[in-house]
# Entry
Amino acid sequence: MHSGNPVFIPGPTNIPEHLRKACDMPTVDHRSALFGDILHPALDGVRKVLKSESAEIFIFSSTGTGGWETALTNCLSAGDRVLAARNGMFSHKWINMCERHGLDVQIVETPWGAALPANRYEEILAADANHEIKVVLATHNETATGVKSDIAAVRSALDASGHPALLFVDGVSSIASMDFRFDEWGVDVAVTGSQKGFMLTAGLAIVGFSAKAMEATRTGTLPRTFFDVHDMSKGYAANGYPYTPPVGLINGLKESCHIILEEGLENVFARHHRIAEGVRKAVRAWGFELCAESPECYSDTVSAIKTPEGFNSTDLVTHAARKYDVAFGVGLGDVTGKVFRIGHLGRLTDVMALSGIATAEMCMADLGLDIRLGSGVAAAQEFYRNGSAS
Ligand SMILES: *Cc1c(COP(=O)(O)O)cnc(C)c1O
# Structure
């Protein structure tokens, strides 16, 4: 039995009751106009959430990982050069996928905890006089380290060097929770999934393609079948799919966009920022540090918190699940055992965040860490009390 406690993993998020109900539907014919009334508002909603006028939106039954593959296989050919920074587990996995598709990845090794080095990108792009780099990858929010990167700065690096490479952005843990500007930042492909900012179960890969990315699909020759955006486009034109779509989940996405846009994107971003700030106040009160190395790169959707030397952070996560039925995120990859993560994205309130902070404190005390019960809670309470209520 589920305890009813909120989860504090950085995706899947807590699912608002309204969205759970929106996914629970009787079967409808997925080749009917009725399905079109679900699909097209979902596509329009996603476009608005991306802050785009004209991006082509595609929704696959998959996850964010399938969105990465959609971006790569539709636009690129084997041997194409890709520029990417590795600063955490998710950027690492996207690079690994590129390599497995036979792409030639120029990797900028970046400390786990630091943001993407846009300056370094600019030097590399400027030096690439023959324009061999076809795509620049950017992970907007590294979920493993709680690090946000500056996508506008990556755009500037491309523009300053007059480089025509496409810009692919992994926005899986930022889109619909943190400011994302598809058009303004000149993003060519944006990737996300249903279980993070959109607050649904996993099951959808959601991507946006610019006109320039659509143009690149004409020359890219990597094999693609399930994730072919042209097959999908043809389906959409007839209110359908090239295969059977998960209608309930797409209905959930339509409703999710509706509630996000009704709250207002800027209000959603401000709420995430306020809740995250409260968590950060608690971390400071405990005397701990974030994995993210400076305030400009603090993520508003997840905090990766360093635990003291000699303490295995995974124990805290295991203990929280076993004793209190509360889920925190473990450290991944290079930071396994060194950090635990508090996810604070989706439909969270100040009150829910306080319960997570309080639980983390109980676990730390149980496991013998030197913290005073209530210290982080009090710091967050002071902050939430004086911020505007949600
Ligand atoms: C969760 C996540 C992914 C992977 O998405 P899946 O839906 O698990 O395939 C990719 N990138 C980032 C930044 C993520 O947070």
